[in-house]
């Protein structure tokens, strides 16, 4: 369902051009070793690449039933914000834990009972970080059926999220980035 092969290639080219794809020896957040690293924060801080990501994600979600676009703090915030602006859907930010001061809470934005939230993720490996956000949204009465990730590292996130009844839709897969190195 993601965009055409041409638009996918434009995104791959943009990710590489902004320096989001690097090769070498890296240790991932999971502790696993990798010969490549995908730094979507570099893409999120490059206006052209961020616009391309937002346009590609918005093409995918235009026919979906969603009440808001969500992103997990920090990596998902610029992505979800850009997609919110591009799609016109309200924004929901999900903190990793409740804020203990001010108005408190785990969410920034409106989450109503039955709200359908489409989550944006920068890079998925096992899906662990986004699963926590899905559980928090569901515990607060929201619904999550789809997560759009900029890059899927193809390391189990699709299956892990499917076990929760959530579909993972990658804009590109790591194998697309690595094979066109």
UniProtKB/TrEMBL annotation:
<feature type="binding site">
    <location>
        <position position="153"/>
    </location>
    <ligand>
        <name>orotate</name>
    </ligand>
</feature>
<dbReference type="InterPro" id="IPR029057">
    <property type="entry name" value="PRTase-like"/>
</dbReference>
<feature type="binding site">
    <location>
        <position position="95"/>
    </location>
    <ligand>
        <name>5-phospho-alpha-D-ribose 1-diphosphate</name>
    </ligand>
</feature>
<feature type="binding site" description="in other chain">
    <location>
        <begin position="121"/>
        <end position="129"/>
    </location>
    <ligand>
        <name>5-phospho-alpha-D-ribose 1-diphosphate</name>
    </ligand>
</feature>
<keyword id="KW-0460">Magnesium</keyword>
<dbReference type="Pfam" id="PF00156">
    <property type="entry name" value="Pribosyltran"/>
</dbReference>
<comment type="similarity">
    <text>Belongs to the purine/pyrimidine phosphoribosyltransferase family. PyrE subfamily.</text>
</comment>
<keyword id="KW-0665">Pyrimidine biosynthesis</keyword>
<comment type="subunit">
    <text>Homodimer.</text>
</comment>
<feature type="domain" description="Phosphoribosyltransferase">
    <location>
        <begin position="50"/>
        <end position="160"/>
    </location>
</feature>
<comment type="function">
    <text>Catalyzes the transfer of a ribosyl phosphate group from 5-phosphoribose 1-diphosphate to orotate, leading to the formation of orotidine monophosphate (OMP).</text>
</comment>
<dbReference type="InterPro" id="IPR004467">
    <property type="entry name" value="Or_phspho_trans_dom"/>
</dbReference>
<dbReference type="GO" id="GO:0000287">
    <property type="term" value="F:magnesium ion binding"/>
</dbReference>
<dbReference type="InterPro" id="IPR023031">
    <property type="entry name" value="OPRT"/>
</dbReference>
<feature type="binding site">
    <location>
        <position position="99"/>
    </location>
    <ligand>
        <name>5-phospho-alpha-D-ribose 1-diphosphate</name>
    </ligand>
</feature>
<keyword id="KW-0328">Glycosyltransferase</keyword>
<dbReference type="GO" id="GO:0019856">
    <property type="term" value="P:pyrimidine nucleobase biosynthetic process"/>
</dbReference>
<keyword id="KW-0808">Transferase</keyword>
<dbReference type="GO" id="GO:0044205">
    <property type="term" value="P:'de novo' UMP biosynthetic process"/>
</dbReference>
<feature type="binding site">
    <location>
        <position position="125"/>
    </location>
    <ligand>
        <name>orotate</name>
    </ligand>
</feature>
<dbReference type="GO" id="GO:0004588">
    <property type="term" value="F:orotate phosphoribosyltransferase activity"/>
</dbReference>
<protein>
    <recommendedName>
        <fullName>Orotate phosphoribosyltransferase</fullName>
        <ecNumber>2.4.2.10</ecNumber>
    </recommendedName>
</protein>
<comment type="pathway">
    <text>Pyrimidine metabolism; UMP biosynthesis via de novo pathway; UMP from orotate: step 1/2.</text>
</comment>
<feature type="binding site" description="in other chain">
    <location>
        <position position="96"/>
    </location>
    <ligand>
        <name>5-phospho-alpha-D-ribose 1-diphosphate</name>
    </ligand>
</feature>
<dbReference type="InterPro" id="IPR000836">
    <property type="entry name" value="PRTase_dom"/>
</dbReference>
